Amino acid sequence: MSDPLRGEIVARVENVTKVYRLGGHDVRALDGVSIDFHQGDFVAIMGSSGSGKSTLLNLLGCLDRPTTGRYILAGQDVASMDDETLSRLRGRYLGFIFQSYNLIQQLSVVENIEVPLSYQRPPLPGGRERCLKLAALVGLAGRLDHRPTELSGGQQQRGAIARALVNNPHVILADEPTGNLDTVTSHEIMNLLDALNHAGRTIVMVTHEDDIAARARRVIRLRDGKIDTVAENRPPLRIPATT
């Protein structure tokens, strides 16, 4: 059931388990997890090592599939999709930000931002213009021709954020987006994510840092593959339902 204080549901995890076979034993990384993510959510996922947070983010990113339960993204159950259909869905609805930036060293800033567009069929019109606008949005208008090695860590992460936005995704998934950054730069990146959230972007972020999680609107803590606590930091954005 939708929450009247939030936007419409863009992703739903229903009683999901994920079991891995390691060393002849079954390891239950997720155990009956159910969460709704609404348009305009800003959710931080926390937990100790082995709590299941990375596994959950991989499932949300369609990089893995649940052993049991359902994951509904944009109204579609991903479990029944073949790899090609799943890849198209991932490219259309999701944007990714990684701790290690994952920029291609041989490409310039603007070329890195363009990379997800190369997988779109048919190609999105006005792709280069969109990349230039996103570079300006994240403060890299003066660094378009620079390679990643010519950028600071914060600038590389800004480039990664622009790349995550280029396909106009419904949900941005961020895996420890400030993990390699100093305190000042971390808060600059969080200010940028906060601004994107205020503009209506849905953000799901894994972090181990309490001060970074405090910037989210909702904090979900996992323990032993289960949801331990859910806390509201700020009121949810009130995003009108689409008709």
**How many distinct helices?**
7
How do the SSEs run, as a string of H and E? EEEHEEHEHHHEHEHEE
Low-confidence stretches: none
Strand order of the largest sheet: 6-7-8-3-9-10
Through-space gap between termini: 17 Å
Helix content percent band:
25-40%
Structural class: alpha/beta
CATH architectural category of the domain at 39-65 and 93-232: 3-Layer(aba) Sandwich
Portion of residues in beta strands equals: 25-35%
CA-based shape = globular
> How would you state the average pLDDT, rounded?
90
- The count of DSSP E runs of length 2 or more, i.e. the number of strands, is 10
Would you tell me which CATH topology of the domain at 39-65 and 93-232 applies?
Answer: Rossmann fold
Largest sheet: 6 strands, mixed
CATH class of the domain at 39-65 and 93-232: Alpha Beta
Radius of gyration, taken over Cα atoms and rounded to an integer in Å: 18 Å
